[in-house]
UniProtKB/TrEMBL annotation:
Protein name: GNAT family N-acetyltransferase
EC number: 2.3.-.-
First-tier enzyme category under EC: transferase
Record carries keyword DNA-binding: no
An MF annotation (GO) of this entry: acyltransferase activity
Organism: Lysobacter korlensis
Length: 189
């Protein structure tokens, strides 16, 4: 798999995906502080100080090469510069050429196709520029919106692990969706 250095924003028709900056703290806080947004995330709603620390940490990650490398990208609407959410891409296994995607958006941006647009751009990056063999998304199977997104992207359910994760005071399931490079190419995306 070819390493990738994030040197310039990724632009789609309506959004710009770029590294997070200190200027994004309040925008990220506006959705990461919400119960409804964090319901299926691995963390509880965050206070502004925690969001600020995370944004500063994420801003330092700009290379995908080895296991655990990641990009956490601000999703900025081109029309008005508003940060709508963030996208995540990480090297799950360099040896097995596997990447993982994730996403979090402010509820005001739900249902408008922004996540599909961004995830499609990151799948192009993964398969066309980096030469990934496989891209996965791990999610809470109760998160119907993320499941619909995976399906729209051409990903298929590969696994549904029952009560494999102690999550917010209870046992929870994990769903795994995936797409292979040849499946991506067959979509003509």
């Amino acid at each position: 798999m070819t390493p990738f250095d994030f040197e310039e924003p990724i632009r789609t028709e309506r959004v710009l995906m770029r590294l997070l900056t200190e200027a994004d703290i309040d925008a990220v806080y506006s959705y990461q502080s919400r119960d409804d947004v964090c319901r299926y995330l691995l963390f509880e709603p965050r206070d502004r100080e925690t969001v600020a620390a995370k944004v500063r940490e994420h801003a330092t990650h700009s290379r995908l090469e080895k296991d655990g490398d990641y990009l956490q990208l601000a999703v900025e609407r081109v029309a008005d510069g508003r940060v709508l959410g963030d996208m995540y891409i990480t090297v799950k296994s360099a040896e097995n050429q596997t990447l993982e995607l994730g996403w979090t958006f402010h509820p005001d941006a739900h249902g408008q196709g922004f996540a599909s647009e961004c995830a499609t751009a990151l799948l192009r990056l993964a398969f066309d520029r980096m030469g990934a063999h496989r891209v996965i998304a791990e999610l809470d199977p109760r998160n119907e919106g993320s499941i619909r997104l995976c399906t729209r992207l051409g990903m298929r359910e590969e696994a549904h692990f029952r009560e494999d994760l102690w999550f917010k005071g209870e046992w929870a399931d994990t769903g795994v969706y995936a797409i292979l490079d040849r499946e991506w190419r067959a979509l003509g995306a």
